[in-house]
Design goal:
The structure holds two protein chains of two kinds. Chain A is mainly α. Chain A has helices spanning 2-21, 41-53, 79-87, 101-111, 125-131, and strands spanning 60-61, 65-66. Chain A is globular. The termini of chain A are far apart. Chain B is of the alpha+beta class. In chain B, helix 4 packs parallel to helix 10 and helix 6 packs antiparallel against helix 7 (200-214). In chain B, a hairpin with a 3-residue loop joins strand 16 and strand 17. The longest helix of chain B is centred in the middle third of the chain and has 21 residues, at 170-190. Chain B contains 18 helices and 24 strands. At the A-B interface, helix 1, helix 2, strand 1 and strand 2 of A face helix 11, strand 20, strand 22, helix 14 and helix 15 of B.
Chain lengths: 133, 532
């Protein structure tokens, strides 16, 4: 419980940090950066992925659903989440243009070793690069 | 004439020829016949000629596309039934008021605490003057409109990394940028560097224009002066009697202005989609969907229906659905035809008997992130302290902008500002936070521009569109390449079904897109139905 709390505080603190020092400046309504500045799998998950896949990675169900990443056997093949993040799939947007190879590798490695997933093999930035279109 | 024969005849040159030959009345008639007079493909209320002979239509989704289809098909004599996932109509055409509950996916629940009379439009909030289908429906459905202030010269443009993080007034940035560009161009002109581009006579006119447009002095310099203050504002405004001597303001240094990139905040209001005059419905954007609902029979929309499967054959469609609140056994609804306005984020998860082209098109579309927050303040400090009446402040911070209310100036003690409206990475980030964490970011970002946020903040409500259970995103994210590949297939009739919504339009994210998409879809469907 404690780690979740710390993580969440860290998450918003990171975003608050951006509040004072964000990157490229663009016009308001379409505004903001075009890429994510978070570093490390946990920060990326908590600031981006959990918007849909939820803080406990269990997904959610509305008129449609967001799949759970927790205990998800589809994560067994590391290339699968890499490809989905980079290129998108159906409702899942393509994040390839908003993340570096390192960021994708980090968040895949984080997700594959948390939330009841325990896959030992690691993804490298080179793997991500190879998955890009 | 020879040139016109050689050049491929486009619609504009055709109209020009008709206009010359037959006068403007004939030209207008020709244009409306070809559906070209309307700025968004809309010219006049849809007339569906021909008898549908008792045919029935099932409309899926009661957003603006579904409501438009239901209204027009019913008027044309169809038996219409609408299935809606939520307990209310409107889709993204919504307003949040005090007492409303916002349920986001993941169990995040907010109870809006706004005082009576205040609201925030978490979806669309403004209507361009050229979205004439939507404006026409507002007129027909008795939805009163009022101006939405898009540009306010006294609002701010802010970059946390420029000018020590201090915001500048729009009028200061605008005047200074105009002034320096004019000065530079005047310099080029007088030095003869434009001789290739303009004649001597034109260069003289250009210099006159630049001097007037840029508020330059007689030496074509942009410098502190009464004339410049007349554009950018004064340090001390002109007043009366002996006490108020006007004091001119000092322009920003050009290099600092350029590097600050504050000029990016000048662009939006000049783009076609955001030019003045813009409108908003009096009392909240959802007045539009309420107007549609008023015009429909009370039992036409069935609420709380979560569509789970769509089957079709040569005679019609069978749609399975469950109660979106209680679940339970699937029920079915049948009809001869189906207008399907469900967002593709959801549709891509619904088993459907459709052809591969439509399936691929649906699967190709993900939705943009979008985030908005409404913030109630204890007093209207932006008006009382800063003389900002409506309009928008832009910032490089995650909230992207602050939009001040366009109404009730000086009439109420409190007020609600739009404290965040952002897309892209910042929207994903803000969506990923809990409502409480989001509001902290909103207040911190706001306070960097307006310190009053710290003391005057009362409560707030936010919407991260990817967490909205009925859309799973803000709007369809087309790329040019994907549009080329899949747009036609997405809009084409598949058997007995046609899709409609902003995603099936060239006006993505706009309500006008939802409406003209629906009108176009049912026109095509109707042609098939009467021919059947």
């Amino acid at each position: 419980m404690k780690s979740v709390f710390v993580g969440r505080v860290f998450g918003s603190a990171l975003l608050l940090g951006l509040c004072l020092s964000s990157g490229a400046y663009a016009q308001g309504a379409g505004g903001g950066r075009f890429g994510f500045t978070e570093q490390g799998g946990e920060a990326i998950f908590k600031n981006v992925c959990q918007g849909c896949h939820m803080p406990d990675a269990k997904g959610a169900v509305g008129a449609g659903m967001y799949p759970a990443l927790a205990k998800n056997p589809k994560l067994e093949t590391a290339g699968y989440p890499v490809a989905v993040i980079v290129n998108g799939q159906k409702a899942m947007p393509a994040f390839g243009g908003m993340f570096s190879d390192q960021q994708v590798a980090d968040v895949v490695n984080y997700t594959r070793t948390h939330f009841g997933n325990n896959y030992k093999d690691k993804v490298t930035p080179a793997d991500v690069k190879a998955a890009r279109p | 004439m020879t040139e016109q024969v050689l050049a491929p005849m486009n619609r504009r040159s055709l109209f020009r020829m008709i206009g010359m030959a037959a006068g403007s009345a004939a030209m207008y008639q020709a244009m409306t016949d070809l559906g070209y007079a309307g700025e968004s493909g809309y010219s006049a209320p849809l007339k569906l000629e021909g008898d549908p002979k008792g045919a029935s239509v099932l409309v899926l989704g009661a957003g603006l596309a579904g409501l438009t289809a239901a209204l027009e098909l019913r008027n044309a004599g169809y038996k219409v039934q609408v299935l809606e996932y939520q307990h209310k109509a409107g889709g993204r055409n919504i307003s949040i008021r005090g007492g409303d509950t916002v349920n986001e996916l993941g169990g995040f629940t907010q109870h809006c605490q706004f005082d009576p009379g205040f609201y925030v439009n978490p979806g669309p909030m403004r209507i361009p003057y050229h979205h004439i289908a939507l404006l026409d429906y507002c007129k027909r459905l008795n939805v009163p409109l009022e101006p939405f202030s898009i540009i306010n010269y006294n609002a701010m443009i802010h970059n946390s990394k420029a000018f020590g993080g201090k915001p500048k007034r729009y009028r200061e940035v605008e005047t200074d940028f105009r002034g320096y560009v004019s000065e530079l161009l005047a310099k080029c002109t007088s030095q003869g560097k434009l001789d290739q581009a303009v004649t001597k006579e034109d260069a003289e006119v250009l210099l006159q224009a630049l001097r007037a447009w840029g508020a330059l002095n007689q030496n074509y310099e942009y410098k502190k002066s009464g004339q410049v203050s007349n554009h950018r504002g004064y340090d001390v405004d002109p007043g009366g009697g002996l006490s108020w001597q006007p004091t001119d303001s000092e322009p920003m240094a050009m290099a600092e202005l350029l590097q600050s990139r504050l000029w990016t905040g000048l662009l939006t209001g000049h783009e076609y989609e955001y030019q003045m005059t813009m409108f908003q419905p009096v009392g909240g954007m959802d007045r539009i969907s309420a107007g549609f609902v008023r015009a429909l029979p009370p039992d036409m929309i069935k609420y709380n229906c979560k569509v789970t499967e769509i089957k079709q054959d040569a005679n019609g469609v069978v749609v399975s659905y469950v109660d979106s609140q209680k679940g339970g056994a699937p029920q079915t609804a049948t009809a001869n035809w189906c207008v399907n306005t469900i967002p593709t984020t959801i549709l891509s998860q619904v088993p459907m008997q459709i052809g591969a082209p439509l399936k691929n098109a649906i699967n190709s579309l993900s939705y943009s992130a979008g985030f908005k927050a409404g913030v109630q303040m204890k007093r209207r400090w932006w008006e009382d302290d800063e003389r900002i009446y409506g309009g928008i402040t832009y910032t490089d911070q995650p909230v992207a902008l602050i939009s001040y209310p366009s109404t009730q100036f000086m009439q109420t003690q409190k007020g609600v500002v739009l404290g965040a409206y952002t897309f892209g990475p910042h929207a994903f980030e803000l969506t990923s936070l809990s409502p409480e964490e989001r509001m902290k970011v909103v207040v911190d970002c706001g306070a960097a521009i307006h310190p009053q946020y710290r003391t005057e903040f009362e409560n707030g409500v936010s919407v991260g569109w990817h967490r909205m259970p009925f859309t799973l995103g803000c709007f369809a994210q087309w790329t040019e390449a994907n549009r080329e590949k899949n747009y036609n297939a997405l809009c084409a009739i598949d058997g007995r079904m046609v899709l409609a919504g902003e995603h099936a339009s060239h006006l993505g994210a706009w309500q006008e897109g939802a409406i003209v998409s629906a009108l176009d879809a049912i026109k095509r469907l109707h042609q098939r139905a009467v021919a059947a």
